[in-house]
Amino acid sequence: MKRDYPNLCKPLRVGALMLRNRICSAPMGATDITAEGSPGLRTLGFYEARAKGGAAVVTVSELVVHPETDGSQMLHLSLCVPGQLGSFAYVADAIKRHGAIASIELSHSGQYAGTYMVDKNKKGSLCQWGPSDGIRPDGIPVKALETSQIDDIVSAYANAAALAKRAGFQMVMVHAGHGWLINQFLSPYFNKRDDEYGGSLKGRTLLAKRILKAVREEVGAGFPIELRMSGSELFDGGYDIDEGVRIAQELEEYVDIIHVSAGSYQFGFSITHPSMFREHGVNVHLAEEIKKHVSVPVACIGGLSDPDQMEEIIASGKADLVAMARGLLADPEIPNKVMANKGDDIIHCLRCFVCMAERPVTQTRRCAVNPRIGRELEGLEIVRCAQQKKVLVVGGGIAGMVAAYTAAARGHDVTLCEKESELGGILRTERAIPFKYDMYRLALTYAHLLKEMDVNVICGCEVDAALIDKFKPDAVVIAVGSRPIKLPIPVSEDAYVLSIDDLYLNNAQVTGDVAVVGGGLTGCECALYLTSKGYNVSIIEMRGELAPDANIRHRPILLEQIAQAGINIHTDSKAASITAEGIYVEKDGIEMMIPASCIISAIGQRSRSDVVDKLLDAAPFVRVIGDALRPSNITNAVYEGFHAALDI
């Protein structure tokens, strides 16, 4: 078979193991962890999905090795809890039975203990231990570990590795990056010790060496050890890539793979986990540089999901392995699709942080584009229907496309009608915005998948009663979307006012200074886009803060981008009227005018309820989904479209 991605598909021997390809599932935390730190059944299904999807290695995250100094709601493993070893053994088996290598991440958060606790206030009651006394950026004090505690932690790493091997894991990853404990010792910013564990590079790498040696003694030769490190901490006072190279060289003799990430917790979340405002593969250069100076295989990570990019990384020698976390949440089947020459079928990660935002809020997993993540054991497999139905999907936005694809995959006879000339719905508005292009690409991917599934797609077709009578469907899924809300304020005839649709879909011209009315997620992103085009932009928001509808991971990054862009912010300001000269706003009982020759309304969307009402009696089975049900987001649209199709 001639491979489209021959280098990605090439096996690699590591220790005594043969990796079936060059794509690895990077650590991403579990969800239903018991009070004792055991993985639940949902966690098993979560990791098994990526093993079934074809990843060479699936790494379970994060196994806390020393709860006494790292109290948090993560995995623990000991023989003290009845059945706990067995729960880990079931997870390892679920990974291995699909041909993937089962690995587990050995971790200690150090001074960032309690990071994943839902009740953040309780973090203050934990013991925060690190290499040196100090104060965390959030004001919590940190105590320096004593040498006797360090000895206990080293032994704990070895014991955890031994138990992991006993449970059936075939390799381990030692987490020494992202500002966690080992990284804190490696970092000149955190490590101010004056004993053998501090000072020179030799001293700062001593803890890592002791841990890696102890782990090797327990797991034996041929059992791969993967070291996860930050190639550079990428903040003032931290180590740079030159010292990252020297750290890798100091530690390579003790490991089989060096997994190169970037950044440090609380100093660069969007660096470690590249946001939509950064290039795909933005951190690969760190792995590339380290690979030049070490002899063991090197893995890279950072906003990867495109097989062409990943193929080039391996082919050009920048890295030996590519690792993904969010990419394999969005589409666990990426490796299988790569191996089968179906790169065009990949559902790409949007880098929207829905997955990472959900975990600290509800202790669950959710993905904007994959409704099954975290719910793999709920019977959500797409199985063929017992009786084929005639299904009509009204609306070709993301909700309608997901519903049509899923229904077709179940074997139904599916027709999708879209009143516009192309599919995509509101996702078409993302085409113009560079940092939102992945969302527009999602629409292109589903258009391709609908064609692959032989769905009858009719664009330029508005469904009415006559068409329903002619079609006689057994099931109708209504996904007619929403329309922009008009500004409920006086607007002079000579004022120039645009909606978001006017701007993005109709290529309306923007001139002069711009005022965006509405400081929600849509308005903020619009302002960023226009600022990047050179316009002087103001945001008018009646609430006291911007983007309250953004998730807790994306919002701080978005606000940082807005601050850097120099956008004029007017919160607690209610739009009063619009003239050709600008917009009048009321703040604290005082009216003021903000000069602007172009006003853009971004105050929200309203469901097309008038269209929905006409279709509610169109078939025995009718389901309203997406913005047609209530204006929301991609996550809910995908989820509702998927489940509507399963219910037919």
Short description:
With 648 residues, this protein is an alpha/beta fold.
Across the major sheet, the strand order is 3-4-5-9-10-11-12-13
Q: State the share of residues found in helices, binned by percent.
A: 25-40%
Number of helices: 21
Unreliable stretches: none
Bulk shape:
globular
Mean of pLDDT: 95
Beta-strand level of the residues, as a percent range?
15-25%
| Number of strand elements | 28
**Secondary-structure class:** alpha/beta
Radius of gyration: 27 Å
For the biggest sheet, the summary is: 8 strands, parallel, barrel
Cα separation of the termini = 38 Å
What does this structure look like?
There is one protein chain. Helix 3 (147-167) packs parallel to helix 6 and helix 18 (521-532) runs parallel beside helix 19 (554-565). The protein has 648 residues and is α/β, with parallel strands linked by helices. The strands form seven sheets. The chain has an eight-stranded parallel barrel with strand order 3-4-5-9-10-11-12-13, surrounded by six helices.
What topology emerges from the helices and strands here?
Layout: E1 12-14, E2 17-19, E3 23-29, H1 41-52, E4 57-64, H2 84-96, E5 101-107, E6 129-130, E7 134-135, E8 141-144, H3 147-167, E9 171-176, H4 181-186, H5 201-204, H6 206-219, E10 225-230, H7 241-251, E11 257-261, H8 269-272, H9 284-291, E12 298-301, H10 307-315, E13 321-324, H11 326-330, H12 334-339, H13 354-362, E14 390-394, H14 398-409, E15 413-418, H15 437-452, E16 456-459, H16 465-471, E17 475-478, E18 482-484, E19 497-499, H17 500-504, E20 514-517, H18 521-532, E21 537-540, H19 554-565, E22 568-570, E23 574-579, E24 582-587, E25 590-595, E26 598-601, E27 605-607, H20 609-613, E28 621-624, H21 634-647
Parallel strand pairs: 3-4, 3-13, 4-5, 5-9, 6-8, 9-10, 10-11, 11-12, 12-13, 14-15, 14-17, 15-16, 17-28, 19-26, 20-21, 20-26, 21-22
Antiparallel strand pairs: 1-2, 7-8, 18-27, 23-24, 24-25
